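User: Can you predict the 3D structure for this chain?
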Amino acid sequence: MTQQESGDEMTEPNPYRDGEPEYQWGPTQPPGTPAYGYPNAAPGYGYPQDPPPSYAQTQPAGVPVPVTGGPPAPTGGQPLVSIGDITVMGDSIVTPAGSMPLRGAVWNATDMSRTEEKIPTHAIVLAIVFFIFCLLGLLFLLMKEKQTTGFIQVTVTSNGKHHSTMIPARGPETFQQVMGQINYARSLSSM
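Assistant: Here is the predicted structure, written as structure tokens:
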């Protein structure tokens, strides 16, 4: 009966251990000692040993199952909306100057941006160059570029505190984007 037929090939010592020095690899362990991390991982390594957080399971129809037990959800939570350096949390507004209550907050926005339309320099150069060869060069003067500069000022007042922030205008649509965020913050303040 050979070693493979008996099924105890793992209990025999390494047949290559006594050979040349380049074949003597691996850590030296006494026979019968399990390998590192087997069957249990070493303490302090790997994934955290705390139990995994509970999650809301769903039924097959997609109806959420209420989570039982566990600590109640914190009222602060993750940010709901962030407008410049103003962050709206679950029940408060966080600013660099401090926190203020969300309920009853008054939000205002002022558009202090402007959009200019001008003929770019390369269009003028092309118009001059092609005007010499043909009159079609004047069509380059129809090229226009829009450039928006300025800021959107957002102010919030709550519980006697006031904070203002300036958001740079990247384009003509910036004011509408900021107003969408402010309207969401206003709806949260009225709850």
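The first strand starts at residue 81 and ends at 83. Confidence is low (pLDDT under 50) at residues 69-74.
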